[in-house]
Amino acid sequence: MKLENEYLCVEISEEGAELTRIYDKQKRNDILWEGNPKYWKRHSPVLFPNVGKTYHNTVRIQGIQYPTSQHGFARDNTFTCITSKKDTAQFLLLSNEETKEVYPFDFELYITYTLKGKTIDVQWKVRNPMDETIYFTIGGHPAFRFAEEEGKKANYCLRFPEKECLSYILINPESGTGNVDEVFEMALEDGVYPLSEEMFKKDALIFDNGQIEEVWICTKDGKPYVGMRCEDFPNFGIWSVKDAPFVCLEPWAGRCDNHGFEGEISEKPGINEVEGRGTFIKGYQIIVA
Questions:
Q1: Number of domains in the chain
Q2: Can you give the CATH number for the domain in which 210 is found?
Q3: Which whole-number Å values give the CA distances from 190 to 26, 158, 186, 200, in the listed order?
Q4: Is 66 exposed, middle or buried (CB count within 10 Å of its CB: 0-12, 13-18, 19+)?
Q5: Quick one: pLDDT at residue 150?
Q6: In angstroms, rounded to a whole number, what is the distance separating the alpha carbons of residues 84 and 91?
Q7: pLDDT by residue (tens digit) across 18-57?
Q8: How confident is the model at residue 85, as a pLDDT?
Q9: Beta strands 272-274 and 134-136, pairing class
Q10: Alpha carbons 101 and 259: distance in angstroms, whole number
Q11: Structural domain boundaries enclosing 78
């Protein structure tokens, strides 16, 4: 599926309803990571019904333990394209017998991409067709490649407009869940923090409490390259792979379990809940400079 205007060419796969390409026609440059498995085989997966890992890779729903996979199953399922226009595409994933083996709820997951100038609007809609409440987390995971084919992180920085300091937690290496007992400070200089390999030595950085509403990847001299606006998102992740020429900016509505959490899904901190016949809507924007 392709969206295109005078500025950008955007490609989306029905597999996972995943963005697979953002091409800047004016600069003749690919913005989205191409999925080279040497570093990471994906581009911009949609994370649902869980972001990250659950503790012991299980989730308790109404007293029953279900197995989970990291980042959920939506990214590995085929969506149906239900709207296809030059500037808009919408995809739908419905619950089925296979999804119910690991997530017993009925759901309708709609992913919509809209191209407006040099901005890509991404919207998620989760509709609950049941009478009972459903619970989930959902997130984005776009990887932005550097302008140079083998670009180095040290040549780029992150800019957080109007921010002076951010706080984050890290992932427990044994369980893959959040270490909430230790919080780190990220001091910014004029809203800027330099990228480096050292930054990701302990995996992703997790920012809670709605701290990040806008972030830009900039060249070392401060020139904007690509940005993201994600208002009203409670959680945000920043991640990369050692020596990889990309960085992931990840807006999340909910995140991985806290290390040691073994309660019901309804008790999980930050869980989204949609009552019977209700709808959840959340969206963010990718902006090419």
A1: 1
A2: 2.70.98.10
A3: 29, 11, 12, 22
A4: middle
A5: 86
A6: 9
A7: 999 999 999 999 999 999 999 999 999 999 999 999 999 9
A8: 96
A9: antiparallel
A10: 25
A11: 2-288
